[in-house]
Design brief:
By secondary structure, the protein is of the alpha+beta class. 48% of the residues lie in helices and 22% in strands.
């Protein structure tokens, strides 16, 4: 059957697909709009599959904390290029995902992707937009934190941070939480304190210390001892509470929190960077 320009334009407005793609889909569907939309969705799925091996290093970071400050959500929505990350369609997808996450509080990326919005799950909506944009789209990282006081911070739309504070003793510690979240965004600590550092990280740094001392010509008998000092310095510089506070180089993050409220500290945090 003959497909009119008006039909093609209407389908293009509804789907955002290219003019020729819309015309071909309508011809294949014999003018049935719903079938044509499904055809375009299938095409989008094929395009997305072809780009599965591409690297999605651009995108936006999102964070949210509920009114009571007890639940925090953060994720990164990635694409291949910066221009795509600034389109209305991409930004709209990010907001849609955020709203769905807030409403349902999924615990993992697969759970988030399976959420249904207007009868279509998020995974399918991402596939559709991937087909339209011609780029790989993915939710690379996701975090859900529940606790006594959660504070969020997003830096330049590229790094999202959630901080879980305990020991608030009923006072408002939002500003202190923001300060600590900014510290995390800037300094990227590996853990809250040395007790929460993964053993494999400590072992790796120990081996780095041993090899460095060996290359400096130190005797084999003292390599392990020297490495212990190297690991100690690493933990001081790379665990949150031991780090020098970025707003006051005379104190640590732990000391800063104690100055706000005795017993105030960080139980956990999440730092999600786009493409990192």
């Amino acid at each position: 059957m003959a497909i009119t320009a008006a039909q093609v334009n209407e389908l293009r407005q509804r789907t955002g697909a290219g003019m020729m793609d819309c015309k071909k889909a309508l011809e294949e569907a014999q003018g049935d709009f719903e079938k044509a939309i499904d055809i375009l969705r299938v095409k989008g799925q094929k395009i997305a599959a072809k780009r599965a091996d591409k690297e999605a290093k651009e995108g936006k970071a999102y964070a949210y904390v509920n009114e009571s400050g007890t639940v925090g959500i953060a994720f990164t929505l990635n694409c291949e290029t910066e221009p795509v990350s600034n389109t209305d369609e991409f930004l709209g997808l990010g907001q849609m995902i955020l709203k769905a996450a807030i409403a349902n509080k999924p615990k993992t990326v697969p759970e988030l992707l399976s959420l249904s919005v207007d009868g279509v799950n998020i995974s399918e909506k991402m596939t559709e937009l991937s087909g339209k944009m011609g780029e790989k789209l993915e939710i690379a990282k996701y975090a859900l934190i529940e606790g006594e006081k959660i504070v969020s911070y997003v830096h330049a739309n590229k790094v999202a941070v959630l901080v879980n504070l305990i020991g608030t003793n009923g006072i408002d510690v939002t500003e202190a939480g923001k300060d600590v979240a900014m510290q995390i965004a800037a300094m990227n600590p590996v853990a809250v304190d040395e007790n929460s550092v993964a053993p494999e990280i400590i072992e790796r740094e120990k081996q780095v210390g041993i090899e460095r001392a060996r290359q400096e010509g130190k005797p084999e008998a003292v390599l392990a001892k020297i490495a212990e000092g190297y690991v100690k310095k690493f933990l001081q510089e790379n665990t949150l509470l031991s780090q020098t506070f970025v707003k006051d180089a005379k104190i640590s993050v732990k000391q800063y929190l104690e100055s706000i409220q005795k017993g105030l500290t960080v139980k956990s945090f999440a730092r999600l960077g786009v493409g990192r």
